[in-house]
Design brief:
The chain is mainly alpha-helical and 134 residues long. The chain has one domain. It has 6 helices and no strands. The longest helix has 34 residues. The protein is rod-shaped.
Length: 134
């Protein structure tokens, strides 16, 4: 490959990393409805004296902890993907970009395609030279 083509491929991969990071951040916010329901249960919004006993508090905490963990993991991964996109554009942090590309393969189908293409491009000897990897 020509160095100009490698630079162009890395630039395109960088742009696609930003797009996937945005998509993942948006998707990871879907459980916010469950989080709000859990907060409402714990706060006592569903306490109705006329109809009987309210839902137990631990049920509300489950609705808080699980969506909270999902949102936190999704946003953390979105930030890592965005950082990897920036580093690909700067030709820095070869191993970080490679690890994030491997983790991206879990997010089917878009993340898998992007992760595989990123790994293929990063394995080229000319790209390794651009990153300063022996």
């Amino acid at each position: 490959m020509k160095p100009n083509e490698d630079t162009q491929h890395l630039r395109l991969l960088s742009i696609f990393h930003y797009v996937v990071a945005g998509m993942l951040a948006l998707i990871s916010m879907f459980p916010i409805i469950h989080l709000a329901m859990g907060i409402a249960i714990v706060a006592g919004a569903f306490d109705d004296v006329e109809k009987g006993t309210p839902p137990p508090a631990f049920f509300g905490w489950i609705f808080i902890l699980l969506p909270g963990a999902f949102i936190l993991c999704g946003l953390t991964m979105a930030v890592c993907i965005a950082i990897a996109g920036r580093r690909l554009n700067q030709n820095r942090s070869y191993m970080f970009c490679l690890v994030v590309a491997g983790i991206e393969c879990m997010f089917m189908p878009v993340g898998t395609v992007l992760g595989v293409f990123t790994i293929i491009v990063l394995m080229r000897p000319s790209v390794k030279e651009m990153f300063g990897v022996a």
